[in-house]
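re: ur question from earlier - yeah i can do the single chain one, its not a big deal. heres the input i used so u can compare w yours
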Amino acid sequence: MSALTGHDEAWHEWRAAISGGRMHHGWLLTGAAGMGKAAFALSAAAELVRETGVPQPPVEHHPDILLLTRLPATSDDEKKREDGKPFATKRSITVDQVRGMQRRLTTRPTLGSRRAIIFDSADDLEKSAVNALLKSLEEPPEGTIFLLVSHRPGGLLPTVRSRCRMLRFQPLATADVERIAARERPEASSEVRASAIAAAHGSPGAALRFIDNDLAAIRRELLGIIEQGDPDFARRGALASAIGARPDRERLLASVELARAICSERVALASRPVQVRLVEAHAKLTRIGAEIPYANFDAGLAVVEIGGLLAAAAASKDGT
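and the output i got, formated as tokens:
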């Protein structure tokens, strides 16, 4: 997303901390994926390191802003990144990356008195990298502020969470998501954008993934399964056709997120037995979604499992 929208409360809290003179050294930016937390972190870091009268380079080239994220998986992927093409990444942020960051911290900031270290996301840190980071959080160098983006803060070590101040990101208003979708994907039809916004539940990133992955047909098949069941497996076959014979991880993950969103939006209106099944399906879809970016998987079996979970959660004709 090229420009930030919303999150006024988060900005108020951040700017109050900057102006207050007692800046906490660790910040945990939490909320669902696609809310703009990483974009916020970069803009917030630019405000943090800015010095009056000192020219500031772009954020991506700023010597006092360090972004740690998953690196390209291979040398070929490194070249793709340099060429601006889609590329695969490693499974995690490595301990070597964290140690490289720590070597940088032995020097003073370049242009001012502060330095920002961004992890996008902290959820991707390998175990040894988390332990290395913890040492920096326990004894932060003067003027160094850590911003840890996290979609699943419950999965982080309690010792990491306890050393950070929580900054929560709530879903955006529908009008805000509409403006972002129209600005970022003007070529999409109004029908596709409307479906994306309905499925995104306040997450502009989710809405853009919906559009990019052409999920309208997938959503239609998922809704058919959850509303009418699938006793003869016909709808699961239609779902497989909509997702495609050889979907990449991004498309499959977007389909899982869409299925989870459908489960979430139906819980409040369902009967108690159906609610229990929807919650169970949501939990299992969450597990599948966590595995897709990293694990070896059979796309065909994953599609069958997604459809099967929604079929099992569907209400019978008498509503039970």
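The mean pLDDT is 90. not sure if urs matches, ping me
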